[in-house]
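dumping these here so i dont lose them again. two proteins, back to back, each one seq then structure tokens. dont judge the mess
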Amino acid sequence: MKHTAVLSAAFAAIALGCGLSGPPTPVPIPRDATDVSHIVVSVGTPRGYRTEFTLQVDFPASPVPELYAKALQAPWTQCDWSPEWRTFVDTKTNPARTVHQQLHFWFNRDAARTLELLTRYYSAGNSARKPDDNKQRVVVTELLGQNVDERISKLGANCPAKELRSNSTPHSDARRASSQDQPSSARAGERGR
């Protein structure tokens, strides 16, 4: 955890220096993760944070979504996006490759933030039933200043009904969205990564 705390402090300092409205939400990175990188997205829209890493785990293991489901408690809400493993052929690469993928989604309405978790394995060619190796690539993207309901709708995520709001009723997220892009001090309820 000490490793994560040092990275979190450095990441937060860079983020605040780039004019983002607060530090990233602290999420655990497994001790055995390799190729760890942190990216601050401070230009354009949306703004936020991206963390990427690789784990050596056999398919169809899903240790990171389970870890994050425990770590991201209220005010975060988890939704079903595409939690089952899906397989498709990525023809944009040369040569084409097979992608085995899961997608997970959380939101924090009060902070106008969303967190997207993508886990992937890759296989050569276009006919693999299971991945060629045990390298699970993980991408965690936290977006700031989000209209949560709009993002849920765009992704097609299935969220608990009690957490959804009608798009016809204005709410505080919609009113705050434009001010989220301006640098400001951290709002109540936000935590650092």
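---- next one ----
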Amino acid sequence: MLDSEDWREVLEANYSALEGRGYSGSAAQAVERSVASLCYAFRIYSSVKEGTLTSEALGTPFTFGAGDHSYQVIISKPYSEIQLADGSWNLVLSAFAMSATACHRAFQERFRKKSPDINPGDDREQAWAIIYQLRNAFAHDPFQPVFVPSSGYHRTYSVASRGITFDFAALAGKEFRTDLLAFDDYLELVMLSLDLTS
């Protein structure tokens, strides 16, 4: 599935690139938050996979919020290790869905159209077409995403300036799996989306 060390390095490198960039506007902020969510979800998933976050830890009460707006949460039903692993993977899937949706929305707002061209020419349109297809994979069932590009999008898209290529003709009908997606390419697309839409 995931190599936690590789993913952790890629996530932390890309997340640290956001620091001090000062983007404003709801679409760009949503993309930034989605990167933070990817980092958070992957940290939880990695901790479960490595055994540093166990089901016993969830039995301990925890508090979130502050002052009059703080809440204590106690999970009374014990989780099995399998349930914990499944739940942490669902966080990763949710973060992927959120980031693809945030990037797509940022492109829509920036370029004032609903979707990218089917025959994109420049890197911006190619990047958007990839993000659009990834977003669509999560649109109908975010916990069992499937690549379902419409017939016009059954093609290979390439962001030449970044060396990123996705072949949606080959992915059509396949469930989303991390071995089908080069994660560093995906994060590069998210960061490029932030640059192109800010």
